[in-house]
């Protein structure tokens, strides 16, 4: 029984001649034809139901054209809409239906053709049916997209500005959206070749990887060495000046923030802002058109491929941050851009017992229904496309727990994970899970199956807390430094299942982490309510930038401490672009809508002395990691002695130079010594020889006062050589300084001291 307010809305809708917010009769659904300049239709041949999308090919009798195929379960009819350069629309009914796939071959349609779909069916939001042929819809399989989503009221399937917002989503809007939405573009499929063959890819093993998270636009937007017309584009990232920085730094992979075609949210556009990060996908096959320097009528595809090729030639893999958990269509009050109008009930999870509403495990209004076979096919087809045709080397899955949900709970035997595990293409690429979502039971760190690595936020929390003096003891830090065996030593998983990071795009930059204790997101226009309040940061004595020389020196040392800790830890280290040279966001920990200098990498920092040294240290530590296999182990430490002299592959020491006891792990402490033995590295090299390396002792001291640390004597070492002292800028010891085993060294307050073992 509807409420009195809903009944009033029904009467008002009828009075204004709109589709009323009630269950309509089937004969009424989609009966009104959208207005607009319509060109006479073209002949459509039957075509084929596979592959899905728009594929240019030679058809019957050698006639060239394009085959169109769209899965639209439950739809009553589908019109293919072709657009000329003046906006004229040709509507071509697709009359062939095979297993819920509408298809047809249109002779003469060639690459560069702009197109979309109108899908007819019932308007019955109460049962989840939201078909509205007035709305032009983007093909989910479009390989390129021309134009941008401006999101005026016309692109909503319902009357967006209906006075009674609680029923607005039930009032159908019959205005034509075609003038206001981007169009798909037919793209030429090049003949298969060996362009992306395995022997042409870097194929960096997981254990040897160093990941660099960057934004395609923000990385080069201010780069003085990149030509102005290429800055902020795929071509800009492929430019030698941009590649040179990555090569000098020594990273092995770039993890690109979302490059699938995305839309800006309405609430941002109304405030004069834009979605900068891109976690609002709407086209899973199309490179985001705004990042292309060469054009948006299909040229973006070739430009993206050339970028990947240039990175590969520099020895750098390409990992995409992908958002398959939700789309830009938001909830019931969101716009109608693609899937919502094709088959709302098929593509999205709806709430049990209330199909008007969406099940939202993502915090973004909707969640894709991955248990639906055609939705799962959409995702896996997209993943394979980016690997086989675009050349990428792996994926980081945003809110991956949402993809692993079966009908409600997160299930590590879910269809999505099962399909990935058996797919001959996808099981061979790098797979990174963000192992949580916002739903009940969504936090799944350590739970993903073998083949998967995970963003380890427990590493982030422990390292931040240690260096700000907030850890009650060093138990958790010990696990994080040595590969998080408590999380990943099961089912054949390895230490590189842990992607270790201190910062990511979401949160403070590394410099802001030691400069701010409170978020400063006022520029987002949300009253500083957005962004996390759990930053685990320390401003070193002043909030924000300061002229105090002592505070500035302490902050630079803390940056060196955090960077050194990350690169000495077992697992896969991940950096954020600009952290290696002190990039700041002015205290913003949620710069998702700041497409400006707040988010763009400031390349002037590279020339400033204090930050130039940070880059040099970061590069030196990465090179040290590449050179020493003991720092990038492929198996967990055993902690047991493997030889008669009692040396273990991993040992922990107190400031007294004695091995830590059970009681020491539970006692308050700000200093930890970690001994890594190069004699006991499991595995063999490519020729079958035992892997042998130097041994190291790392001393991490987070207290503000100096500490006297006794260096372990024989059999651990005869002497030690200083490799890194993060206090060097003010008072530390230069590399090469030698200390006698059994003697004591003074470790400056808040310092990492890395020593190479000599004559062990």
From TrEMBL:
Residues 213-625 form the Glycosyl hydrolase family 13 catalytic domain. CDD domains: AmyAc_Glg_debranch, E_set_GDE_Isoamylase_N. The keyword Hydrolase applies. It comes from the Bacteria. Transmembrane segments: none annotated. Residues 9-21, 521-536 have a biased composition (Basic and acidic residues). GO terms for molecular function: amylo-alpha-1,6-glucosidase activity. GO terms for biological process: glycogen catabolic process. Keywords: Glycosidase, Hydrolase. Pfam families: Alpha-amylase (PF00128), CBM_48 (PF02922). Gene3D superfamilies: Glycosidases, Golgi alpha-mannosidase II, Immunoglobulins. Residues 1-52, 521-545 are annotated as: Disordered. InterPro entries: GH, GH13_cat_dom, GlgX_Isoamylase_N_E_set, Glyco_hydro_13_N, Glyco_hydro_b, Glycogen_debranch_GlgX, Ig-like_fold, Ig_E-set. The keyword Protein biosynthesis does not apply. Belongs to the glycosyl hydrolase 13 family. This is Glycogen debranching enzyme GlgX. It comes from Streptomyces alboniger. The gene is glgX.
């Amino acid at each position: 029984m509807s409420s009195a307010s809903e009944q009033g809305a029904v009467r008002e809708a009828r009075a204004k001649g709109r589709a009323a917010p009630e269950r309509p009769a089937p004969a009424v659904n989609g009966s009104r034809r959208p207005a607009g300049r319509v060109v006479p239709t073209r002949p459509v041949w039957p075509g084929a139901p596979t592959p899905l999308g728009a594929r240019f090919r030679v058809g019957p009798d050698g006639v060239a054209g394009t085959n169109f195929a769209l899965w639209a379960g439950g739809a009553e009819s589908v019109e293919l809409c072709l657009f000329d350069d003046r906006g004229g629309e040709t509507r071509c009914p697709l009359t062939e239906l095979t297993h819920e796939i509408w298809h047809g071959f249109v002779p003469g349609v060639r690459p560069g053709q702009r197109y979309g779909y109108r899908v007819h069916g019932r308007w019955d939001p109460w049962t989840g049916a939201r078909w509205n042929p007035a709305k032009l819809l983007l093909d989910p399989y479009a390989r390129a997209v021309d134009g941008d989503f401006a999101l005026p009221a016309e692109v909503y399937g319902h009357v967006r500005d209906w006075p009674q917002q609680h029923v607005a989503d039930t009032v159908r809007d019959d205005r034509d959206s075609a003038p206001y939405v981007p169009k798909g573009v037919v793209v030429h499929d090049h003949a298969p070749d060996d362009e992306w063959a395995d022997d042409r890819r870097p194929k960096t093993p997981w254990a040897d990887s160093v990941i660099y998270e960057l934004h395609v636009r923000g990385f080069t937007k201010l780069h003085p060495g990149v030509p102005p017309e290429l800055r902020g584009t795929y071509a800009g990232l492929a430019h030698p000046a941009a590649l040179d920085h990555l090569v000098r730094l020594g990273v092995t992979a770039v993890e690109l923030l979302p490059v699938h075609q995305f839309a800006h949210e309405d609430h941002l556009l109304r405030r004069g802002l834009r979605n900068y990060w891109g976690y609002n996908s709407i086209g899973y096959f199309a490179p985001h058109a705004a990042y292309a320097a060469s054009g948006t009528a299909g040229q973006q595809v070739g430009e993206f491929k050339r970028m990947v090729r240039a990175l590969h030639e520099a020895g750098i893999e390409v990992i995409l941050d992908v958002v398959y958990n939700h789309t830009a269509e938001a909830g019931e009050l969101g716009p109608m851009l693609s899937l919502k109008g094709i088959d709302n009930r098929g593509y999205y999870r709806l709430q049990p017992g209330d199909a008007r509403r969406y099940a939202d495990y993502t915090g973004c209004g909707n969640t894709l229904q991955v248990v639906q076979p055609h939705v799962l096919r959409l995702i896996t087809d997209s993943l394979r496309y980016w690997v086989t045709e675009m050349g990428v080397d792996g994926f980081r899955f945003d809110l991956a727990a949402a993809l692993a949900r079966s009908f409600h709970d997160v299930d590590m035997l879910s269809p999505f994970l099962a399909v990935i595990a058996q797919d001959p293409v996808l099981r061979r690429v790098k797979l990174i899970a963000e192992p949580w979502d916002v739903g009940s039971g969504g936090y799944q760190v350590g739970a993903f199956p073998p083949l998967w690595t995970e963003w380890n936020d427990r590493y982030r929390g422990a390292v931040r807390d240690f260096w700000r003096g907030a850890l009650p003891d060093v138990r958790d830090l010990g696990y994080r430094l040595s590969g998080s065996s408590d999380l990943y030593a099961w089912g054949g998983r390895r230490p590189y299942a842990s992607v270790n990071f201190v910062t990511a795009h979401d949160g403070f930059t590394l410099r802001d982490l030691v400069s701010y204790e409170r978020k400063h997101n006022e520029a987002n226009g949300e009253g500083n309510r957005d962004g996390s309040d759990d930053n685990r940061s320390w401003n070193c004595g002043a909030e924000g930038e300061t002229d105090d020389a002592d505070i500035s020196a302490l902050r630079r040392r803390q940056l060196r401490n955090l960077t050194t800790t990350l690169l000495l830890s077992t697992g896969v280290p991940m950096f954020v672009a600009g952290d290696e040279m002190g990039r700041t966001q002015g205290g913003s920990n949620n710069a998702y809508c700041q497409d400006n200098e707040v988010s763009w990498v400031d390349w002037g920092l590279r020339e400033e002395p204090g930050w130039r040294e940070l880059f040099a240290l970061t590069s030196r530590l990465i090179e040290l990691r590449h050179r020493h296999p003991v720092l990038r182990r492929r198996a967990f430490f055993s902690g047991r002695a493997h030889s008669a002299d009692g040396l273990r592959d991993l040992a922990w020491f107190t400031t007294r130079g004695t091995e830590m006891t059970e009681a020491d792990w539970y006692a308050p402490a700000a200093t930890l010594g970690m001994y890594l033995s190069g004699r006991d590295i499991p595995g063999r090299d490519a020729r079958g020889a035992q892997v042998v390396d130097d041994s190291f002792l790392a001393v991490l001291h987070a207290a503000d006062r100096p500490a006297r640390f006794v260096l372990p004597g024989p059999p651990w070492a005869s002497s030690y050589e200083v490799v890194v002292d993060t206090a060097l800028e003010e008072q530390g010891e230069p590399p090469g300084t030698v200390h006698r085993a059994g003697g004591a060294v003074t470790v400056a307050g808040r310092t990492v001291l890395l020593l190479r073992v000599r004559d062990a």
